[in-house]
Amino acid sequence: MNVSIFVVMNNHNAKWIVDNYYILFKQLFKIGLNITQFAVVEDLLGLDYKSFSKGLTIFVEDEEKKASELLVPLNQMADCGNGTYSSPSNNIMVINTNTLNSFDLLKNVVVTNLKLDYDNYCIKCFGLSEENINNYLKEYKISNNIFDYYVHTEYGDSLIIFRFLSSVDKNIQDNIVSVFVKDLKKAFYASKDIGLAEAVVEILSLRNLKISIAENFTGGKLTDTLLNETDSAYQFIDDALIVYSAQSLQNQLHIDKKILDQYSEVSAEVVYEMATNMLDHSSCDIVIATSGYTNSNNTGVFFTAIGDRDAVNVYKHSVLGDKNFVIKYGTNTTIFELIKKLRQNTLNISNYAV
Q1: Domain total in the chain
Q2: From residue 197, how far is each of 17, 228, 341 by CA, in Å?
Q3: Over the stretch 307-354, which tens digit does the pLDDT of each residue have?
Q4: 201 and 322 together in one domain
Q5: Domain edge (last residue) among 99, 114, 129
């Protein structure tokens, strides 16, 4: 069902809605609603109700309850509880920010009033562009036109949601999603809506492993992401170092000066030494090291090393973007490579591969 969203609220709450628009879009998509019209307004006076897109209109109100100025007053709507009102005959709903903040509450209110019934499959993958995923899904839908989909990508990390009417046989749903996941090959990392940090901590917990981290260009962002986006990452981090200068690399990670002079701080050789030397001086099971740079042409080059006491792999990456983008993308890339390492059936892989 198509839906128009009008945010009728104070500036603070309106900013929250705008900043989290994609989260709102995702929540409504899972329920069965597609946002086709979105606006933030100070009040409802002067709005041309005839211009609303066909379907449901949802007004999000603030504490001042400006939505009470609707053509259909709140006292003539059905009170759905939790500050939510509906007028099914007019295709209008009024909800508040508390409802938006809770997906379960939002789903209960909308599904109960609109009789919507959908099944959703969430998939997480990394390293594919949003454009490429959308192009593939458009073609895929032509041959399996019984689902809708939603794609959102940030810094290489993509969420894909398949939405089916619940009346579609579950075996058919499973088969369509399974074929798509198989096509994703090595980009797939989770079958639920979780972040990269959550996914890696789940595996570390399951396998009871500890990691050590040596960061150069990511400047602590890797450690910070693991700690702040999960509740228990601290249990699985043995050491975490930030090393920038050649002197710091020598003092803290015991990198040979000859190697630094020959290859420079940003090189496959040095990031390999960062990882192996960290392993020598740590009790961890897995080690991660990063090194890289960005230049004035908005081009970033970075190296990551992932390994254990049997083998260390080094990867080289190039990416376009400003400094902040490169650091965040590099952080996500490193975590994804750690996930792949942890999921290998055997950790005995080639000692050195760029």
Answers
A1: 3
A2: 25, 9, 14
A3: 998 899 999 999 999 999 999 999 999 999 999 999 873 333 333 333
A4: yes
A5: 114
